[in-house]
Design goal:
By secondary structure, this protein is mostly helical. Helix content is 80%, strand content 2%. It has 16 helices and 2 strands.
């Protein structure tokens, strides 16, 4: 059984890697699409909002399909759709058609994302150890490799329009191979979690059984923090390359390198995230992450040179890295609900922010400038701390750091 779990764990790592690589392969093309279609910041934001709508539309369907057919099955078919969907926006000739293409991309990306996270939760329970941060580390490692490959491609005298189609073909072939070894949700988890749904959560001086509280109230503070963290992640993903090109006259390759550093920091921190949680505890890791993310955004917004922007990207990546996997893992452990239910409930706020953040910031940037929009995001990230202090402190302390 251990060999089965190990093999499934490695395949799941690979799936996370491919999803991250695919997403990062698309990001460097955003300013190029904006320039080709002559879109303003606000119009680009509206197009990106369509991707957010696609994510929201996929949320309930992804959860139901994962719980009914198995998360591994949903990963299989959603991946077959996601990687080709990355290429479609490149060939759109107008804002409406671009919005439709981004809607399809967001829908397929969310289906695969929720399913692979649900599979990770099932695997975490089966292995009886914290692994979700490490899985997200492989997503970020994939993002680093995808952005790095794009940087290399853009530097060489090659057609930029061929980069994404070739990347998508490679990623699709790798996905088809890896998805066959994912763990089935029908495999029973370790006995330690058998009665987890009957554990209690301390709220002040009163212990309330999990089963007696509506799932939405149990997960609400996690969802709020996920919204804040993913808002910051979505903004830097879609706008940092635009900001560097606009404020520092950077080339596309220099801007892509900044995003690659951000992805590298995410990968390094997430790969060590499970160790950090076990060593330091969930609460200190969450607070430190919030502080680093806020600081990194300030550096990006106020830097007079692209080298300092690179530093800000790295610090921001370090801060944002473990927020989402820490929240998902803690929520799953404290409620005992199925992976699809937990991931989809948190994702309904967190992943919506990931896609909705860019268009909101696009509208702000159109009126007040992109630098001020980044400063606003920095302040918004600091809201994680009061949410933690008012509603999550006890929860993070009582859930064990396995």
């Amino acid at each position: 059984m251990n060999s089965l779990y190990t093999a499934a764990h490695n395949r799941c790592r690979g799936i996370f890697f491919l999803h991250g690589a695919g997403f990062a392969s698309w990001v460097p093309h955003i300013p190029l699409v904006q320039q080709r279609l002559a879109l303003s910041h606000e119009n680009l934001g509206l197009a990106l909002l369509a991707a957010a709508v696609g994510v929201v539309a996929a949320m309930p369907l992804a959860a139901r399909c994962s719980n009914r057919f198995g998360s591994n099955t949903v990963v299989k078919f959603s991946g077959v759709l996601f990687f080709p969907a990355l290429v479609i926006p490149l060939f759109m000739a107008s804002l409406p058609t671009l919005a439709i293409a981004l809607f399809v991309m967001g829908f397929c990306a969310a289906m695969m994302d929720i399913a692979m996270n649900a599979n990770g939760v099932s695997l975490e329970r089966a292995r009886d150890k914290s692994i979700l941060s490490g899985l997200h580390g492989f997503w970020s490692l994939g993002g680093f490799c995808g952005a790095g490959f794009a940087t290399l491609w853009f530097t060489l005298p090659l057609s930029k329009s061929l980069h994404l189609p070739i990347s998508a073909i490679i990623l699709l072939a790798a996905h088809w191979y890896l998805q066959r070894g994912l763990l089935s949700d029908l495999v029973k988890p370790a006995d330690h979690h058998k009665d987890i749904a009957h554990q209690t959560i301390q709220t002040g001086n009163k212990a309330i059984p999990n089963g007696e509280r509506p799932i939405i109230w149990l997960l609400l503070p996690f969802g709020i923090c996920a919204f804040v963290g993913q808002f910051g992640e979505g903004v830097i993903t879609d706008w940092v390359t635009v900001l560097m090109i606009e404020t520092h006259d950077s080339t596309a390759s220099i801007a892509a390198a900044g995003f690659a550093l951000y992805s590298a920091a995410m990968a390094i921190t997430r790969l060590s995230g499970d160790w950090l949680v076990m060593r330091l505890g969930r609460a200190p890791v969450l607070i430190a992450s919030c502080g680093l993310a806020t600081t990194g955004y300030l550096i990006i917004a106020l830097s007079p040179h692209y080298l300092l922007s690179w530093l800000g990207c790295f610090i921001t990546g370090t801060g944002l890295a473990v927020i989402l996997p820490l929240l998902i893992s803690t929520a799953a452990a404290s409620t005992g609900k199925s992976g699809g239910t937990v991931v989809a409930t948190i994702a309904a706020t967190g992943y919506t922010a990931l896609m909705a953040g860019p268009p909101v910031i696009g509208a702000v940037a159109e009126r007040y400038g992109l630098i001020n929009a980044f400063l606003l995001t920095s302040g918004f990230l600091s809201l994680i701390i009061p949410v933690y202090l008012t509603s999550m402190r006890q929860r993070l302390k009582t859930v064990r750091n396995s």
